[in-house]
Design a protein that fits this description.
The chain is mainly α. It folds into two domains: about 20-75; about 85-190, no CATH class. The chain is built from seven helices and two strands, in the order αααββαααα. The protein has helices at about 1-20, 30-45, 50-75, 90-100, 105, 110-135, 145-185, and strands at about 80, 85. Strand 1 and strand 2 form a beta hairpin.
Amino acid sequence: MKNLIQKLKKIDDFLKKKVDSLIPPQTSSWQTFALLSIFSFILHYLANAQFLKFILETLGWIFAIISLHWWTFQNPKKVSIAQQFFIGPWLTGFFVCFVLFKGWLLNRPDLVLVYTAASWPLISVAIALWPKLRDPGVRFSESDSDPKSHQKIIDNRRDIMLLVLGNLLLSCWLRFYFIVEKWVTLTLPDG
């Protein structure tokens, strides 16, 4: 009996820790959007009208994407490779691709992977560039005569171009892989 009580206490402590992590410390936090997402999905399953179900499901996914994105930027050390390369936008981009192409999952599962792989780097680079382009220091005109601010403008341009071109190249290579795979499977004889 003591053993059962100890196991139940461990389960209770574990669940309490998880629920406490979802309680928002303030109104504007990633936990708020996670709870809104859960609430929207619960209402989605309780709704009767098809249009209302669609709206609630869409809102649930949007809140889940915002929550994931906020969490990744709030915990960059947990979402980094070797504590150097932050992969938060690429996780959010993958989740966005899943949400965009989930309707095809049952109808055309062969196309889901192709389109997800081709669009994932492009969506991720848009997510990664959003904070950079909102920075007031990012300008594309050379109006300053100060060498330090001019160098910052050049560095920002270089970083943005490398990020965009690298992800565009990755998207092209992933799409090329699926094209070649289709050619190979069509030309190889069975058995």
